[in-house]
Design goal:
This protein has 299 residues and is of the alpha/beta class. It has two domains: 14-174, Rossmann fold, CATH 3.40.50.720; 181-281, N-(1-d-carboxylethyl)-l-norvaline Dehydrogenase, domain 2 (Orthogonal Bundle). The protein contains 13 helices and nine strands. It has helices at residues 22-33, 49-53, 62-67, 79-87, 93-96, 111-123, 136-142, 153-166, 177-205, 210-217, 225-235, 245-262, 267-281, and strands at residues 14-18, 37-41, 57-58, 71-74, 102-105, 127-130, 133-134, 145-150, 167-173. The longest helix has 29 residues, at 177-205. It is globular, with a radius of gyration of 20 Å.
Length: 299
């Protein structure tokens, strides 16, 4: 068992991982492949089986998982799920974590909940870091996620050997600031994607060679990560989904709530919220659908 003063390394540090869906499964696998001892929990136990096959142990509750762990990671669906798996007084991870342990919640969740978890952890002489991620399933598989960390900077620095296995950690400030950074990230992504798609449609309607157009703007002021990752895919009509509509609706809702508390108006975000909610009403809540942008194969 590691103590709070020890460096994190595979020979002494035991990890717990809660949430083994598309993101969590890949992120957790990087830790197993690096030689760490892992105990995993997922509400649908069968989804944890691929990690068990890699050598992870399976726990029946988050409490049991935390009792076998020095550091507990979580990446689940909604703030209510975060509260249940971490703070439930009987089955939650914090109830089983020994003093000196660390909770690392990588779910996109509410900043106020991150602050609440941090306070609860401190009351048990534990630490808590909010560390939501950006990069999607592709980034999780390739270990190239952007990680937004909030909490005690010394704890974040101590966790860096673990974070580096999953991507690049960025320290954003005290508890809750990692979540605020992720919400700002979502606003930026949404606005950029809307602009990219409208630009493509405009170029097509104007009779431009769209592939040449995208190549031309990629090195100018309109260049972006969204263009790099999705521009050619759109032209090839490769609309393989990589994100849950319901989870994006969740992100939208959290952000709009925070905007209201700040007295801030984000018009594009409001429009996108109504558009994405319509998709969910159409029964598209599981995956981002294969949209038809109104043009054929790349010219």
């Amino acid at each position: 068992m590691a103590t709070s003063a020890e460096l994190i390394n595979p020979s002494v540090t035991r990890f717990g991982w809660i949430g083994t869906g598309l993101m969590g499964r890949s992120m957790c696998a990087h830790l197993i492949n690096a030689g760490y001892t892992l105990t995993v929990f997922n509400r649908t136990l069968s989804k944890a089986q691929p990690l068990v096959d890699l050598g992870a142990r399976l726990a029946q509750t988050p409490h049991d998982l935390a009792a076998q762990s020095d550091i507990v990671f979580s990446i689940v669906g909604y703030p209510s799920d975060v509260r249940q798996v971490l703070l439930d007084p009987t089955t939650g991870a914090l109830s089983g974590l020994r003093p000196g342990g660390i909770l690392v919640d990588m779910t996109t969740s509410e900043p106020s909940l991150a602050v609440e978890i941090s306070a609860a952890a401190s009351s048990k002489n534990c630490s808590s870091i909010d560390a939501p991620v950006s990069g999607g399933v592709h980034g999780a598989k390739n270990g190239t996620l952007a990680i937004f960390a909030g909490g005690d900077e010394a704890v974040v620095n101590r966790l860096n050997p673990v974070f580096i296995l999953m991507g690049k950690v960025n320290y954003m400030g005290p508890s809750g600031k990692g979540q605020f950074a992720k919400l700002a990230n979502q606003i930026t992504i949404a606005s950029t994607m809307v602009g990219l798609v409208e630009g493509i449609i405009y170029a097509h309607k104007a009779g431009l060679n769209v592939a040449s157009f995208l190549d031309a703007i990629s090195t100018g002021a309109a260049g972006s990560k969204s263009l790099d990752l999705h521009g050619s895919r759109i032209l090839k009509r490769d609309f393989e989904p990589g994100f849950f509509v319901n989870h994006f609706v969740k992100d939208l809702g959290i952000c709009l709530k925070e905007c209201q508390s700040m007295g801030l108006l984000c018009p594009v975000w409001l429009w996108l919220n109504s558009s994405i909610c319509r998709l969910r009403l159409m029964g598209k809540g599981i995956w981002v659908p294969k949209l038809d942008f109104g043009f054929g194969e790349a010219q």
